[in-house]
Design goal:
The chain is α+β, with helices and mostly antiparallel strands. Helices cover 40% and strands 20% of the residues. It contains 7 helices and 4 strands. Strands 2-3-1-4 form a 4-stranded antiparallel beta sheet. It is globular and about 35 Å long. It starts with a strand and ends in an 8-residue tail after the last helix. Bound molecules: adenosine-3',5'-cyclic-monophosphate. Adenosine-3',5'-cyclic-monophosphate binds next to helix 4. The site of adenosine-3',5'-cyclic-monophosphate has 9 residues, from helix 4.
């Protein structure tokens, strides 16, 4: 089934000029980038986006990291896009990520792990709506 998922290319990747390389892995995996914008995330945006992790010990560090440099927010479209993008990203911890995945190729640590992808179709819709309107998405 054709789905849309939400992606963020994180500050560790934009800082190292890896946006194009990450996008190449995404496109080579058969996912289509149907919306994309480079933004400086505000503290309020990062806090809201990661609200579910508010009680985790790394929450403060995560918000600080996500606002430390520009990010690229994206909508990806394709067959089973949510699960497919999670495969393409690899495990949260790059040490456990499979060969050829974005995190294996580029991530620096469990915190600075280069990309975010939605974990369910329901969350994808919520996350997309935080950064894009329907008019921004051209499939
Ligand atoms: P992401 O998929 O964006 O969703 C939550 C993020 O929290 C995760 O990727 C990591 O970047 C971050 N994270 C998860 N575990 C840790 C950890 N132990 N220390 C720091 N950051 C973490």
């Amino acid at each position: 089934m054709t789905e849309r998922t939400f992606s963020i290319i994180k500050p560790d990747a934009t800082r190292r000029n890896l946006t194009g390389k990450v996008n190449a892995v995404i496109e080579d995996a058969g996912l289509r980038i149907v919306a994309q914008r480079r933004i400086q995330m505000t503290e309020a945006q990062a806090k809201k986006f990661y609200e579910v992790h508010a009680e985790r010990p790394f929450y403060g560090e995560l918000v600080e990291f996500m606002t430390s440099a520009p990010v690229v927010v994206q909508v990806l479209e394709g067959d089973n896009a949510v699960a497919r993008y999670r495969e393409v990203m690899g495990a949260t911890n790059p040490a456990q990520a499979a060969d050829g995945t974005i995190r294996k190729l580029y991530a620096e640590s469990v915190g600075e792990n280069s990309v975010h992808g939605s974990d369910s179709l329901e969350n994808a819709k919520i996350e997309i709506a935080q950064f894009f309107t329907d008019a921004d998405i051209v499939g």
